[in-house]
Amino acid sequence: MPVWLREHSWRQTLTAVYLSLPLRGARATAANIFCSEQYLKVSIPPFLFEAILYAPIDDTNSTAKIGNGNIFFTLYKKEPVMWDSLTLANAAKEKLQHLRENAVLKAHEKAKEETEAKKITKQEHKKYALEATMKLEEEERKRIEDLKEKERQKVAKELELWKNQQKDGDTYKSIQKKGKLHQEIEPLKERKSEKMNQTRIPNEGTSKTRLKSTKGCPGSCSIFSQNLKEEQLPAPRSAATIKVNFTPRVFPTALRESRVAEEEEWLHKQAEARRIINSDLSELEDLKEEEKNPDWLKDKGNKMFAMGDYLGAVNAYNLAVRLNNKLPLLYLNRAACHLKLRNLHKAIEDSSKALELLTPPVPDNENARVKAHVRRGTAFCQLELYTEGLQDYEAALKIDPRNKNIEKDAEKIRHLIQGTMQSS
Amino acid sequence: MSVAVGAERPQVVSHVQQALSYTVFDCKWVPRSARLLCLGSAARGTGIIQLYELHGARLELLREIEKPKPIKCGTFGATSLQQRYLATGDFDGNLNIWNLEAPELPVYSVKGHKEIINSIDGVGGLGIGEGAPEIVTGSRDGTVKVWDPRQNDTPVANMEPVQGESKRDCWTVAFGNAYNQEERVVCAGYDNGDIKLFDLKTMSLRWETNIKNGVCSVEFDRKDINMNKLVATSLEGKFHVFDMRTQHPTKGFASVSEKAQKSTIWQVRHLPQNRDVFMTSGGSGSLHLWKYEYPAQRCKKDSEGSEMGVAGSVSLLQNVTLSTQPISSLDWSPDKKGLCVCGAFDQTVRVLIVTKLNKI
Question: Which pLDDT value is given to residue A208?
């Protein structure tokens, strides 16, 4: 049950109402006062003061002063009319209620509007601040640009001045030169003729020819002075060569520090790959360095074949194959040895292996393939497997159609086949 | 490495940019003038020489000369100031000297090398130094040859690999130590990181070293003085500055090295007016301006009592990125301090001005 505050005093003028409300010891803050157009409430629990005003007031402009245990209201009337009393008398309860609610609603709305307005002003302030900073930065930038531009222009002007000086200097010099030379030409000519009578040095010879070829052109005056200077120059150096050694480098590209690690790794890998990793054959340890090289062994084998030592050649090729079984030439040559030794099956085997390794069939290994086919064909024929032999010979012919020997042999085999077919 | 302070740093101002219709390999100022030359290779496989003149804020094309073979490099170093003949090396190994007023036939021509001439340098001309005018060319065939324009067909010095030795490409050559009529050295850099110093007076190898990266460019700070400093730039963004005044019998020359960036440093060029300032151009299209500071004592004695050089330090004055493609050629104007031209592989040539060089 609130305690009503009834001891209030008021006075009025045409435009304003002054209301004084003593607070009985209670402390008031702005939050306790609620005012709308026609309704005024002060609520400081448990105290309560409420007034339905006689006429509407302008609540935004009205003020309330809190102090001295008193609230002093200055309410500005909407219409400048003298009021009969502060509050509306005879107000029905419902009307009161209605008015109260209205007042509350209105107050809410006002509050909302106020927050909206505040937001908008805040945004505008921000925008303004941003624009201001942008302007400042723009100015700074322009200032720097201007400085640079000024510098540039200054320098350009100096350059023009200098250039003009050069031009003037040049023309002045050339005029001077012409003047001087007219004086100098006569004695020079005398001196020249003197020198010509002396023994000719190649140096002089060249200068003389130059004089001849460019006579008459405007540069001739300079040639005279040039000749003078030339006679003072030392003769061309006597030719010599200096031999140069370079810091060794495997790669053809330029040396870069950042690539050195990669390059070292690559070289290391290459070295590893070339080394022999056949460690379970103990005989290999007894071999000399060169005997571990399949190319060297192949050469040895070829030499022995040429000398007729077919078994030795086969041995050499065997060892080479053990070291590196990917070289087709080894098999090819071994096939030839086996042919001579009449190990026909082995010859066929080796030629087949060689052909296998000689894929893909490119012009580079034509030669080798022809040989392989021919050797296999021969082996087949010697085993009397003429059809297979003919197949190989025809393959050889296909690769190398111009070889007469292969053609002849192919013909022979055909005859043989026809002969046996006829006889059987 | 220290960086110079704010407002007093030299600025690199891009003055003129000229788009070209060919790949430019070398650009050079014509001495005593505001003209520059661009040498390169056209798309159709011919060589181009273009002569431009600087007019205000633009380059005016004065002359265009086309030659049968693409041109890789050129120099004015061995010609007199009156004649100003251009010596060029081309992709076919020919060394030609042209009179730009009458460029139809070369004044001197020789098929010096079997493969492309990568680099060329000249000494004894332009009123600088003394002694005979000579041109040195370094080629992909591994040889470095010195030519005298008065002697046809044969070089006066030939630095070639020993019989049977596999060759390395020579990427750069430079003359130095030409302070009197007899003395001269040639420095050559190779793609396997070798730098070799040949003495032409004694016709021998004076010094060699390996800097672990292919050598793109070498230059002495001055050709016509007792050799003072040598800068060698390489792949992987490194360059070395060697102090050439003191040679130790085993350790050679003292050096300081700097890694400026990740990409190749294509060129180094010393400022003609100040031999301690040089500019390097990089594969990322950037230019770095450096200053060398000498140490308190340039040489000291080592434990056995022989003299050893002491290298100083290098500080970065300025750097600027002009292009996305490598800047392959760079040349300072010998007449105007701070004026330089650079050519890049984006087919543009740029004239730059470096300011505040007086304050260094």
Answer: 40
- Lookup: tokens for B131: 């002694």
- 3-state SS, one letter per residue, for B222-254: CCCCCCCEEEEEEHHHEEEEEEEEEEECCCEEE
Classify domain A3-88 at the CATH topology level.
Immunoglobulin-like (2.60.40)
Interfacial A residues in 155-194 facing B (CB < 8 Å): 155-156, 159-160, 162-163, 166, 170
The reply to whether ipTM tops 0.85 is: no
Which of A226, A234, A254 has its CB closest to that of B214?
Answer: A254
- The predicted-structure confidence for A219-273, as pLDDT tens digits, reads as follows 444 444 444 445 577 888 888 888 888 988 888 888 998 888 999 998 888 877 7
**Yes or no, beta carbons of A247 and B205 under 8 Å apart:** no
Region of B151 please: left (phi>0), alpha (psi -120 to 50) or beta.
beta
Query: Which residue is closest to A230 within chain B, CA to CA?
Result: B132
Residue B287, both tokens: 């230019």
| B12-355: CATH, from 2.130.10.10, 3.40.50.1110, 2.60.40.10, 3.30.390.30 | 2.130.10.10
- What stretch of H or E contains B343? strand B339-344
CB within 8 Å of A202: residues ≥ 6 apart: none
Interchain proximity B339–A170, CB inside 8 Å: no
CB count within 10 Å of CB A24 equals 10
For residue B359, give both structure tokens: 């304050």
B209 token code pair: 């070293």
- Chain A residues in contact with B155 by the CB 8 A cut-off are 239
DSSP-based three-state secondary structure for A76: strand
DSSP string, A139-155: HHHHHHHHHHHHHHHHH
Cβ <8 Å between A239 and B200: no
Distance from the Cα of B308 to chain A's closest Cα (Å) equals: 24
Query: Which residue is closest to B13 within chain A, CA to CA?
Result: A152
pTM of the model: 0.61
- Whether B33 and A166 lie within 8 Å, measured CB to CB: yes
Task: Determine the pLDDT at residue A198.
Answer: 45
Structural domain boundaries in chain A: 3-88, 91-172, 292-418
Report yes or no: B220 and B176 within 8 Å, Cβ to Cβ. yes
